[in-house]
Amino acid sequence: YLPQELIAKKRDGGTLTSEEINFLVHGMTNGAVTDAQISSFAMAVFFRGMEMDERVALTLAMRDSGDVLDWSHLDGPALDKHSTGGVGDNLSLMLAPIVAACGGYVPMISGRGLGHTGGTLDKMDSIPGYTTQPDNETFRKVTEACGCAIIGQTASLAPADKRFYGIRDVTATVESIDLITASILSKKLAAGLDGLVLDVKSGSGAFMPSHEQSEALAESLVAVANGAGTKTSALLTDMNEVLGHAAGNAVEVATAVEFLTGEAQDPRVREITLALCADMLVLGGLAPEAESLAKVAEALDSGKAAEKFSEMVTQLGGPGDFVDRYQDHLPTAPIVIDVPALATGTVSAMDTRAIGNAVVALGGGRTNPADPIDHAVGLTHITDVGALISKGDPLARVLARDEATAQEAARRVTAAINLGDAPASRANVYRRLAP
Ligand code: URA
């Protein structure tokens, strides 16, 4: 094949065969296809789209561009969750140990924050001593011993996507459901999973700009993942407000520990976390659907999940007493201010993306992928949509490195929270998409 012939075929609305897609992905991995060609191919797909068979072929080719892990020697299913990204979304930290406590294995390869959303990897990096980049052997051993290990992306996993995404990012071709589907799934499926559950966000803090597009992404992800041979379901969940009441890195680790020990549990977080965990048990054959929710609730409420989390943190190099003394171990910010409401009313809407960007502006996220982040900063005590607020009540608490960034974050929070009449009605889980 010639790359330009395949690009022309897609440009003119043709359907590529698996062999043609394999050829292009091979060239992305070994450098035979140039950046210009990859960029043109991405734009052709952006406008012309891909058939289901093409999306499956692209996903499989990118998955197979590097290492594919194998967990078939374990005595339970390898399961994972992927979220399309949110604000205050620390569910992975609770979900992995809950599923591990139910007999599943969760080899969770997570990412850094992207845009206004937080990343699981950045959160775990706030635990002193915890290695988010262990060697393969350690990753395997900890997953086997604890049932879960939350680590970072390695260079050997789906390298074709790494190059492809880097080019899409700077050529206005990220926003293609076909390409997003293949990108997300190639990385997750390279982890060698028996089952995958997707948490696709919808609302003001979601990656996709409308509910319809979030729904279309969920449908595409479920169809392609199952088409690629991995049992996969999805929940379409609400991101019209911060999930939980904290956004940042160390603060989200703290709320995850409080959730696991039962010290404090936000009801929305509990509902969505347990629903995702229950789906994972069903996909992995660990419980029938009718019993799955009770089983995950027991794993959490008995404290078994908190024990699993503690084991994982210790085995990956974190403090042995982290769960009991997380406040002593996590970094804290020197400046703490409350953001007062300027009027009385009901919180009618929240610009969740703007709240996420306020955390980025505090230094808790990145504007450049190479930037370091400040794990201590963030927001806590963030109000709920629907809350009744009197003038002067706190809308959120800002944890900042200095006075200037604290004031800037306070301005952003004030602008992002609408005080008005009653909020629009909404659900926590909008829809479940079965395998
Ligand atoms: N996240 C990914 O990993 N890939 C995309 O294409 C978009 C978001």
What features would you describe in this structure?
By secondary structure, this protein is α/β, with parallel strands linked by helices. It folds into three domains: 3-63, Transferase, Pyrimidine Nucleoside Phosphorylase, Chain C (Transferase, Pyrimidine Nucleoside Phosphorylase, Chain A, domain 3); 79-325, Pyrimidine Nucleoside Phosphorylase, Chain A, domain 2 (3-Layer(aba) Sandwich), CATH 3.40.1030.10; 332-420, Pyrimidine nucleoside phosphorylase-like, C-terminal domain (Aldehyde Oxidoreductase, domain 3). Helix content is 46%, strand content 15%. It is built from 17 helices and 13 strands. β4 (195-202), α10 (211-227) and β5 (231-238) form a beta-alpha-beta unit. It is globular, with a radius of gyration of 22 Å. 52% of the residues are buried. The structure holds uracil. Uracil is lined by residues 165, 174, 179-180, 183-184.
What is the global morphology? globular
Spell out the helices and strands N to C. Answer: HHHHEHEHHEHHEHEEHHHHHEEHEEEHEE
Alpha-carbon distance between the two ends? 35 Å
CATH topology of the largest domain: Pyrimidine Nucleoside Phosphorylase, Chain A, domain 2
Major sheet characteristics: 4 strands, mixed
Which second-level CATH architecture of the largest domain applies?
A: 3-Layer(aba) Sandwich
Strand order of the biggest β-sheet: 1-4-5-13
Find the count of extended strands (DSSP E, 2+ residues).
13
What labels describe this entry?
binds uracil, four-stranded antiparallel beta sheet, 13 strands, Aldehyde Oxidoreductase, domain 3, four-stranded mixed beta sheet, Transferase, Pyrimidine Nucleoside Phosphorylase, Chain A, domain 3, single chain, Pyrimidine Nucleoside Phosphorylase, Chain A, domain 2
